[in-house]
């Protein structure tokens, strides 16, 4: 070690020109040294720090390099070692370094107070920054360190590094012991800051025009304020002088939040969200006296109940304290609101209004946080929220503040607070908003301008279904406005009009099928009369969305006769074209081969699928009308595909004509599947539709070459079995014969080919295992082995969905065989294979997402061998030298051998202890799961990896708790995400 330091000294003692040449070499030496220390600590540690400090004192140049080594050391051990070292080792290293830190601390303070060398002081500040988050607190608060940092803060050369150090200290939180020091530090800091950055500075403008150092200062300032306020804001609420400094700090942070930089805004937004949530929860509890008392534990003590009133007064006082900053924060959120997912019209980099082509997930995450923050702000003061929004809207109308961006952010903000106001206030507010937006659309000239306004009208109305349900005339006006927008060919407007129409109909559908006051007929009837005109300018995919919307309306009609009449009127256009095509085909089958005709058939089927997805059972008259002709077209197109591929080889499957023919086949299957899936569970529907499909669909699949087989056949029959369950048992052999062997041959050659067939095949197999298990028992032993081999192949798969489906299927099989008369026979054949394969995927580090299901399979197996269900031995007497007293003892020994072979790095005692723990906890799933989790983390394969998937189940439970919390706060869950039962007023 001393030799190394001597070498560094020699290198650094040379002239400056030589030093510059050697810097890269020295940097590499530094890294090497730190790696050695990290792995050979603490043996070399105790002598190293004194040696390093002694070397640092020989010259300022050497001292600078020593600081670089110390910084590397802190980063390597405490920032980058997670996963490389156990928590215990990291703890020991920290303790070891703590005991030696006094020397480092003294050296740093000495340099900061005595040196005039800028680069050395900067290196020392960088080193301090690396250590401050974990060193003993006495070194920070019971020395001159903070005082020294605050002296350096005003100096431009050290400002950013000093601010980073102060931010690290601000983030520390350990009770009230050092509150006085924090207040003092903050007060001095604020005095200095006002000189460096006067409060009246236009910070966004200064940032835009600033140097890299100046921009970094604004970023660091945001981090300082958010770190300090998160941990210590309550300390500043104690006196008027401190409150003034606090409010000034919040003012700075609000101004920084307007900076046009995503990362700066994220830092600020994160803090605003946490502050507003804290204030909202206090306000929420203030409205609930029982909660207020409960917070303080006063509900059981009548004599102290008065304290709850005192707490209420404190909460009210605190709310008033923050009223000013919160009002400014509302304006910030409204002015900078991110774009919601529903908005499809955006401004491109050239300033043109275009249709969005791809979702920006970062923007969606930002919108979610901003929306949540604004909802809390709305709850804190509904009146101020409404006032600020209407004031900004009036500035759009009079042209004072008109711009696309200003209107967009305002309307996105208005849409985001839906549900947060009381209904009466929301109604009054929205009447004014929609009226003003419609007026703005009328008075504004220019196609792009109108497209932007239209987009915003559609977004806002789509967010307020409760309002629309209560105001029929507004609802009708809005829908008619959407019909107008469906003729507007500006990119994105028609798409958004169709999307908004669907969203509104889903939440207000009953309003369209009753005769409203002042009307002669239900709106749906009026709509069906003008339907050809309304959809005249729409693209096919937009027409399909329109049909889905009208299907939603018809589905809400309670009178069967009227419902059938509406359906017949809805389908007039596609049925006319269908009849024409089938008529021509009867005269000459070649008519169906024309590409334009094939496209027309595809479009008709897609229109039917859209209507079926809304109507479910009520679509029966329509599908009955076209079903048999549709199967004939399917059969004919399938023969055309087979002929093309037979003559042209695999390349033929990629030609445009074959792709188009296959699209028709897929859409046929999708239409049937959609209808059967959505239809209510009525056996007569299954009996009507399943038998005619057996040969045209199943037989066709079996006869076809692999490249011509549609994976949708598998998902269709999975849906049918899931729907009609045991009624399908007699059909399972036919299904099995048609799809099983030929599909297995397609998917088991590798993990890449036919990806769609893989997942759908195992979904079909799972449906059979769940609902038609007796049909599986009737399989021959060879066929059953094929099934089990395919299940094992599935859960070995690296594609998560396939592996998960395979594991779920395996669990179904295990449970069903356990309850059957063939339990002994099945488990004797497959128990050890299953255990071995499950342990293989459990421990290979590639299948972590399946952890929960791996655990359930293992628990099932270990519970089984300890029960009395298996009456025959699991071992093979011809290979096992001596009999075991029971299956549990055999499996215990087998598992120990299996794991000892797989994990040679673990001792025999560790493996034995693990297996014993498994048997001891078989009936306690949480303990069983934690035991396996500990074993995995203990093994070398898992210790250096990200193991969050092992805790996925707990994370999902936490997400559900968070959703329940959000449901309890009006507005936090968006209206279109709530599966509400509409109540007509």
Automatic annotation (TrEMBL):
Q: What is the protein's major site of localization?
A: nucleus
User: InterPro entries, alphabetically?
Assistant: ARM-like (IPR011989), ARM-type_fold (IPR016024), CRM1_repeat (IPR041123), Exp1_repeat_2 (IPR041235), Exportin-1/Importin-b-like (IPR013598), XPO1/5 (IPR045065), XPO1_C_dom (IPR014877), XPO1_repeat_3 (IPR040485)
Give the highest taxon in the source lineage.
Eukaryota
Q: Determine if rRNA processing is one of this entry's keywords.
A: no
Annotated GO MF terms? nuclear export signal receptor activity
Q: Name one GO biological process term.
A: pollen germination
* Gene Ontology cellular component annotations, sorted alphabetically: nuclear membrane; nuclear pore
Exportin-1 C-terminal domain location: 622-944
The record's subcellular locations are: Nucleus membrane; Nucleus, Nuclear pore complex
Does this entry carry the keyword Transferase? Answer: no
Membrane topology, from the record: Peripheral membrane protein
Alphabetized, the UniProt keywords read:
mRNA transport, Nuclear pore complex, Nucleus, Protein transport, Translocation, Transport
Similarity comment: Belongs to the exportin family.
Q: What is this protein called?
A: Protein EXPORTIN 1A isoform X3
Biological source species: Nicotiana tabacum (Common tobacco)
Its gene is: LOC107766762
